[in-house]
Amino acid sequence: MLTIEALDKVYKTGTFGTSDLHAVRKVSLDVQRGEVVSLIGESGSGKSTIGKMVLHLLDSTGGSITFDGRDVTRLGFRARRDYYRKVQGVFQDPFSSFNPIFKVDRTFETLRRSYFPRVSGAAWREKLEEALGAVSLEPGDTLGKFPHQLSGGQLQRLLIARALLLDIELLVADEIISMLDASTRIDVLNLLGELKGRGLGILFVTHDLSLGNYVSDRVVILYKGRVVERGATAAVFDDPLHPYTRDLLASVPHLDRTWEEVEAEESARSARLAGRCLYHEALAAQGRALGDEVAAGNTPADDVGLVEHAPGHFVGCFRKAADEECPAGV
Amino acid sequence: MSLSVTDLRVHYRTLRGDVKALDGVTFEVADGEIMGIAGESGCGKTTLGKALIRLDTRMKHAGGTVALDGEKLPIADDGAMRRHRYREVSLIPQYAMSAMNPTRKIGRMIRDLLAAHNVRYADVLPELERRLKLVGLDIDVLKRYPIELSGGMKQRVVLVLSTLLNPSLLIGDEVTSALDVSSQKAVARALVEFRDHGFVRSMIVITHDISVLFQVADTILVMYAGHLAEKAPARTIIDEPLHPYTKMLIGALPKVGDRYEEQQLEGIEGRPPSLLDPPAGCRFRARCPLAHDRCAEAPPFREVAEGHQVACWAVS
Fold it and tell me: What is the pTM assigned to this prediction?
């Protein structure tokens, strides 16, 4: 449904935009209906930037974003409005998504004014209650209240309800549960799982691996704007290949294993993969050297391609940052 | 006995009345113990940390005592606390790394801080450099401005500078939050190392992230709405919690490997009560599946096994 091809984003930084910051480098991924795809990365990995480009809050520098076969990389004002009927986003801080001066109902009223001006009051009310029911909120408990009277989890679910009012097909969820307490966090995650069951595609942006793992079907691991590994959730988490993914998984605080135990497991895999690069090995196995690739124009010159290591499990060159050397010395 | 807190009550003065953020907590932290405090936002964990070092103008000491190494801390008397602060009790407040003076180099900032406590910078410099190296920082950071350091580096600088005078007790409030997992691990490791080297005798680590506590803490104290719910060794809290709140809280945390399709976890219905006028008895009563008539009376926080204390009538 959503396909991103070789997406690039360069921010101008410094005085008068004199230096470039390559935030997203040739990222390709796709999200299908009824599927949760997690974008996992640390700060500065470009995960939010990708989410914002999909939502058209930022312009992309290169590459394309297609939605149902239609290129949506550059949209005019009108076309964008139609696009937002199908694609909506929910962000990290629910408190700053609402205007604290007004009751939460206003968020729904603005939506009604711009998208459903001809719907009657009674029909709208019914629609609204249905959407609130879908996120398991009691209309009596939440409508007519000010944001400070509601909990973070309730506000976050109101925002999801707002997105659902539009019959959306894709939801971009950017760190939507990082600000919530542990006891309400899981409710929002379960809600995402339920929405997925109803055919919604979800791009779930997160830095927390255990949350990404819980709800997603596929994961994309980003490091400094580059996709280093992607594949089915179980494949990536059970058999992480890229050094960055392995580091990340070894650093996550687990609830059932101490860091020492995780490191002991990890060291065996590290020893097996030390000084190797599965990306270049796979290229060599296909009888091609990287130089040929670039010359033939198949691979981008900055070498951000991925190879399919196992069915559905892709991994990139074992360098960490784009300007580092490949550990295999290719 | 390093720290012993008895029936401590700290209230916040507001226009609508007193918010009873800390309503009678009693616990002890042993020598060399790293105690983690976990709980949801608004449960009083930060208030507890702050109460041990300085009550700000909104906070009111409504009762109870705090004793450190057998000596009573005058927590309500700001002037008298000055003698203990930093030397005996040190706090790393929330967002400490963002609170560094941006116009001062790190070294200069540490010098100012030490001067405020009548300690000469030159005297502690060798030790300072040794500790910076211990946490994996170059001594050149002293010549840098805070903006030149990453979040994890800043947090490690804060850790080093707040323990420079070997306090008896260090309180770290959300020291690993807002960091990437790799820096989080480095900072958490540094905390344990500082205790092992004896730079601090015991430690209280406050965080909402229980998985971090499981990695660093010896014991975990779970708080709920200004009361204590349970205290036990870290592994016991994770594997065999007794208090219904702890059980539900741990049950709501996805482990790496848990999947929505295979095993659906459940959150906790409802919200914590308002602390402006909290209900009598057990505060978890309204959300508790085991609640019965007796819960209208506040359960005592008592020891049910060696080192395992619980406040619940249903646990015997």
Answer: 0.85
